[in-house]
Amino acid sequence: MHSGRCDINKQPAMTIAKNAMKKIFILLLLFSTVRSFGENGYDLWLRYLPVENQNLLTAYRSDISALIVSGKGDIISSARNELLAGLSAMLAKKPALTQTVSVNGTLITGTAAEIERIYRTNSGELKQAGDEGFIIKSVLINNKNCTVITANSEKGVLYGTFHFLRILQTRQSLHSLNIISAPQLQLRMLNHWDNLNRTVERGYAGFSNWNWHMLPTYMDKRYRDYARANASVGINATVLTNVNANATILTASYLKKVAALADLFRTYGIRVFLTARFSAPVEMGGLPTADPLDPAVQQWWKNKAAEIYQLIPDFGGFLVKANSEGQPGPQNYNRTHADGANMLADAVAPFKGIVIWRAFVYSNEVPEDRHKQAFNEFVPLDGSFRNNVLIQVKNGAIDFMPREPFHPLFGAMPKTQMMMEFQLTQEYLGQGTSLVFLAPLFKETLQSDTWRNGKGSTVEKVVDGSLQSHPFNGMAGVLNIGNDINWCGHPFAQANWYALGRLTWNMNISSEQIADEWLKMTFSKDEHFLSAAKKIMLESRDIILQYSMPLGLHHLITYGSHYGPAPWVDKGARPDWTNVYYHRADSFGVGFNRTSTGSNALGQYAPEVQDLWKNPAACDEKYLLWFHHISWSQKMKSGRSLWEELCYQYYTGAARMKQVQLEWNKLKPFVDTDRFEQVRMLLQVQYDEAIWWRNSCVLYFQTFSGMPIPAGYEKPDQTLEFYKSLKFPFAPG
Ligand code: GCW
Hints:
By secondary structure, the chain is an alpha/beta fold.
């Protein structure tokens, strides 16, 4: 009977061959699409690519042939999942899970107490590892070569696991391992400037990662991957909301959403914090005041804290921006920052919570150099904050400029513990378009000597508490992620998230090591690629400094969006939101005199630091125009006049950007098409921006210097008026 069905046996040979070809073609097409989509950057530095080298693969497989993961806690589960995923992918083989050591190459993971039946960890080493550190060792058990990853706590085991995976990801040997690593800082934190409507203040990577509307029921896969990425670099705390705070986050329905995130993040050792809007008792509590000394207000916060801890038992506490840039605070009631911080600290203290109070305060009513205001406000309050208060200080006194001298508050309040605040989101460093590796900036600040306790009183020692004997310490980074597929927008911006994490663990890791690790895991392990890409990363901040804010010039950005150059801005809601306030260019010269003949912000530093910077002839030129108003014709160390030097810096910076483009183009064979192209296009945007910065600044400052652009430099192809007319109404952030 005729079935209507095609009988394959009856098809002519040609048709069969054609169909087969078609299938192969579709498969090939699929394969190539998957490959190019595969490198979209979503996996960050946790790509776990299969080991390429056969000998190494064989060695790894025999080094890890069986796996014991001891313990039942949630964090151990995260470690187990990560190990299985990472090892299966890299070794293209799932290690056998077992309970006892019977073969060479058994990897044993668990807290020291959990694995004691198999291996007794040295108590001295455990002491060194501390609460959150870990031990990774090659050991002999039952005459078998084994590796142990252990710690005092489950968190330590998780960090050890990620460290172990990093050893494999960077293709290092697993023989004779003997690592004891403990974090230098206790609070290793991220600050999100994410609003509840999903916009991100100064965010250049899409909308907020937090889909508040869909929480708590819908848990985006990104939440877990965010937690994994953080745990892999040791981050253990996150503030979910913007410091320009919205009280709605403290309502019962939102707290449930926060609790859902906290429940997940806890399994990766991450505690959740929120920003507290100081006026919340009025806005949501219906009280007539938010005065921190009013008993009803105090009670309101105590109740709120109790409500939060009911839902989130390990809630970290509050981060507060008060009386700054329009945020409410204790000064609205003639109270001090200490009154405000202590009131909140008392509310969370019964639950072991903490309050992080920001020192980023300046007021337009005070006719004082903005540089000095935080110091003036806070130093008199030294010793009056509760033990569970940390003062969070930006690296510099103005505002995350591409380069600032260290904040004078570091070391100046010996009785108060300070926390470092860095900015990963590149508000003033090219925003979403620019390749700028920030580790050198972070390290420059951390290594600065405050001289507050003699020579060697570095900012690092203030931050880790060792200089002034504070038991509690931390560092925060204002995060640069959004819902872009690759999290950070610019493929290289991921490196800044990575760098912050690594430095919170150990401030002594070099920028070069961080770049090396990150590149190997994120891009390629090829030696040629590595050395070229590392060079690009390590020079990147220096280049943007040269073409945008050389010699200590600062705050020359567009009003509001802060995107691109606008040194001419002379009108704003307040004087210190204009740019002429900062550069002070006139026919004599340029720069802000912050010495004793000027605002004397320099006077807020230790005398030894003042000595370094007070004399223009001796002052490091990178801070020259930060502290001095210098004549256009002043001779610089190079022998050029200041005007010529400025031109030299702008032109050299832009020219170096061209060089970076050429260097990147040579790396095409080492990078997948998608990311190669993305970076190539972004570098073109950045180069155009460098020219834009150079031309507009040179033309603008020339109206004061009255001097010609030195011979040999290409003249700007547009007029100053043209640059002034540029508008960017929908710039992100
Ligand atoms: O850098 C400035 C930003 C503001 C930010 C503020 C702050 C959250 O321009 O957008 O507000 O600093 O740090 O509070």
